[in-house]
Amino acid sequence: MFTIGNLYCGFLSIGFAAYGQFNNAAILILIGMMLDSMDGRLARMLKADSSLGKELDSLADVVTFGVAPSFLVYYTYFYQFELLGLMVAGLFPLFGAYRLARFNISSDKTSLNYFIGVPITAAGGILALLTLFGDSIPNIITTVVFTGLCFLMVSRIRIPSLKEVPLPKYGTIVTLFIGCLLYVIYRGTYAQFPYLIYIATPLYITYVAYRFVKGKNKKEVD
After folding, report:
1. Where is the signal peptide (predicted)?
2. Cβ of 149: how many Cβ atoms within 10 Å?
């Protein structure tokens, strides 16, 4: 259910972007990040993990963090270059899909210390954030970041996973969500965003807090 929810967020993000509601589209990608970070761990907690779920997760990631961000960037900036802009925007999901396929067959994916190449989830989230704060970021920066992420996803560069940092897992993502939420409230534009963000964010923070407390208690027992 969480994985399909992630996929559906990607589909809705594409729809919002097509209607010109770019902030909504970006927020839905970020909600997809929340769901993506929870699905695997919850499946293991409930003993419901399966090969089907793992394959479905990759397919959902291609849509939510590959196709949706590329459409978002196209509609907000690359549209100026017409067909060429559309073709360039389409490179992002291609690189992301290749990165996912390589990850799925790689023996290094179990490493706790690093990822090989930038994960597509992080890359798509970065593009969503750039769009969300696009009013204060020059278009050239978005172009450079977009191009860089494409190549970083398929690179052999080892990206620290931060899994061994003594903070709640995905703590960085939580911080980003809190920052975005405060920014939205500060700007007084909360009515323009899906109300789902005000349900998803507290639930996600509660989930991470629970995992952190549970992990801390387990270490004390050991």
Report:
1. none
2. 21
pLDDT of residue 132: 80
Predicted confidence (pLDDT) per residue in 180-203, tens digit: 655 555 455 545 555 555 556 666
Query: Each residue of 46-86: pLDDT tens digit?
Result: 676 677 777 788 888 899 999 999 999 999 888 888 899 89
DSSP secondary structure of 109-146: GG-SSEEES--HHHHHHHHHHHHHTGGGS-HHHHHHHH
* Bigger pLDDT: 185 vs 212: 212
Structure tokens, 170: 């995905």
Q: What's the length of the chain?
A: 222
Q: Please state the φ and ψ torsions of residue 77, each to the nearest 5 degrees.
A: -145, -50
Report the phi/psi class of residue 221: left, alpha or beta, with left for phi > 0 and alpha for psi in -120 to 50: alpha
Helices 139-154 and 120-132: crossing angle, nearest 10°?
A: 180
User: What is the spatial distance between Cα 129 and Cα 123, in angstroms, rounded to a whole number?
Assistant: 10
Q: Are 28 and 9 a contacting pair, CB within 8 Å?
A: yes
| CA–CA dist 221, 68 (Å, integer) | 44
- How far is Cα 199 from Cα 29, in angstroms, rounded to an integer? 15
Question: What pLDDT is attached to residue 184?
Answer: 59
Q: How is 27-62 classified by DSSP, letter by letter? A: HHHHHHHHHHHHHHHHHHHTT---HHHHHHHHHHHH
Q: Which domains, from first to last, does the chain contain?
A: 2-221 (1.20.120.1760)
CA distance 180 to 185: 9
Task: Say if residues 123 and 152 touch (Cβ distance below 8 Å).
Answer: yes
